[in-house]
Amino acid sequence: MTEDDGGLRVCLVLATSTGGVGRHVRALAAGLQHAHHSVVVLAPAATRERFGFAAPGDGTEFAPIEIGSGLRPIADFHAAARLSQSARGADVVHAHGLRAGVVTAVALRRLGSRRPAFVVTLHNAMTGRRLRRRVLSFVEARLARSADQIVAVSPDLVVGLRKTRPDADRALVASRLPPPAAGRAETRAALGVDESSTLVLAIGRLHRQKGFDILVAAAGLLAGVAPAVVFVVAGEGPMRAELERLIVQSPGDVRLLGDRADIAELAQAADVVVMPSRWEGWSLAAAEVLSAGRPFLASAVGGLPELVGDGGILVAAEDPEALADAIRRVLAQPTLAAQLATAALARAAELPTADDVTSSVLATYRRAVERRMSR
């Protein structure tokens, strides 16, 4: 198999997704289609609606498989049964994330020696309490051994995987923002933020991993400075109620915007973009912000140092004072802000393209098929 031989039938599997994983799989499906491979996406129906899988004219097939974000043994059993039927006749089944990987592994076991090559991409680190992390580590190790090829989106995840699978490799991810459809002044007016104020943007799911509680604390430290600093967060998630409580208690001006489809416009309107995450892999949002050419501040965690490079300022995670100090530096030094904007664009130009991702994935499929055939 080569990258040019075409004709592969690929099943892309993912669980419930509201963010980067779904967008990555959507872009990957388009890249594989463009390279003349047949693609079937197996995912929850809500994921199809959110990311537009199998839109008219794109050639991608879709079959609803309800794989949730939490352990549900009975539902997972039925999902595995449906998945095994959908995977019959495929050349490669490619699962994205630990939950999708586990259900796919069970499904493919039902096919025995007739199963297709099995590829897994891990997108997130294991978080939570120690017992939970230990259980997930055990599950991940079992999954790594069952896959024909396993890859991950950040260097720290690859290091962990190689304890079980020395051939674990990196998965490339690409993302670019489209040109904004509205001007800076129009977007700021819609947000109720005039040019006399500083607008700080954060993007991501409202989840503890994203560190938006740290952002609220940093906003409190910047309350009362001139010009006024307004923080806006584009995203939705399970931490909304807690964040709303913290915002009410904080002297800072923080506004939760909910899910937004106008990230390009928000980035253009922002004076600074921040990512205060406790952990990130190869963040699509970070890559998008860099391509927008905005001053960018991010936590030095996971894959962010490698992704950001010289394109932004890295700060210590879980440190509101460090984040607030970095924002103060950028706001107080227009020359630094301009340098950061230029550096972000330069770094974005170095990041993987959609074609790079497709070529890398097809090389992974080739290794998986060869491993499968050698067993």
Topology:
Layout: E1 9-14, H1 20-34, E2 38-43, H2 45-51, E3 61-64, H3 73-87, E4 92-96, H4 98-109, E5 117-122, H5 130-146, E6 149-152, H6 155-161, E7 169-170, H7 184-191, E8 198-203, H8 212-221, E9 229-234, H9 240-249, E10 253-258, H10 263-269, E11 272-275, H11 284-292, E12 296-299, H12 304-308, E13 313-315, H13 320-332, H14 334-350, H15 354-374
Parallel strand pairs: 1-2, 1-4, 2-3, 4-5, 5-6, 6-7, 8-9, 8-11, 9-10, 11-12, 12-13
Detailed description of the structure:
With 375 residues, the protein is α/β, with parallel strands linked by helices. The protein folds into 2 domains: 9-173 and 353-374, Rossmann fold (3-Layer(aba) Sandwich); 184-350, Glycogen Phosphorylase B (Rossmann fold, 3-Layer(aba) Sandwich), CATH 3.40.50. The chain has 15 helices and 13 strands. The chain has helices at 20-34, 45-51, 73-87, 98-109, 130-146, 155-161, 184-191, 212-221, 240-249, 263-269, 284-292, 304-308, 320-332, 334-350, 354-374; strands at 9-14, 38-43, 61-64, 92-96, 117-122, 149-152, 169-170, 198-203, 229-234, 253-258, 272-275, 296-299, 313-315. Helix 8 (212-221) crosses helix 13 (320-332). The longest helix has 21 residues, at 354-374. The two termini are 17 Å apart. The model has no long low-confidence stretch (mean pLDDT 93).
Q: Which percent range fits the helix content?
A: 40-55%
Low-confidence stretches: none
Q: What is the average per-residue confidence, as pLDDT, rounded to a whole number?
A: 93
Number of domains: 2
> What about the largest sheet?
7 strands, parallel
In the CATH hierarchy, the third-tier topology of the largest domain is known as Rossmann fold
Pattern of helices and strands: EHEHEHEHEHEHEHEHEHEHEHEHEHHH
Secondary structure tally: strands: 13
Shape, principal axes of CA atoms:
elongated
N-end to C-end Cα span = 17 Å
Strand order of the largest sheet: 3-2-1-4-5-6-7
Decide which structural class fits the backbone: alpha/beta
- SS element count, helices: 15
CA gyration radius, whole angstroms: 21 Å
Beta-strand residue fraction: 15-25%
